[in-house]
Design goal:
Length: 62
């Protein structure tokens, strides 16, 4: 898989924002993007847990 530079991806993200976007909206989109990429990386590394196991670990009901 070809790696796309962060600078390029950031530019694409900026271009997708409306002209009226705020700093908070930009920061939120960067955060969401980073969280998704981190989750995909964990999934690829098989660092995942079944929802039932997670709920049991934290004492949450199903």
């Amino acid at each position: 898989m070809q790696t796309i530079s962060i600078k390029y991806e950031a530019h694409q993200l900026l271009e997708s924002l409306p002209e009226s976007a705020t700093w908070d909206e930009l920061m939120y989109r960067i955060y969401v993007r980073q969280a998704i990429e981190a989750g995909l990386k964990d999934s690829d590394a098989d660092k995942i847990m079944d929802v039932k196991e997670l709920r049991a670990r934290f004492g949450l009901s199903e």
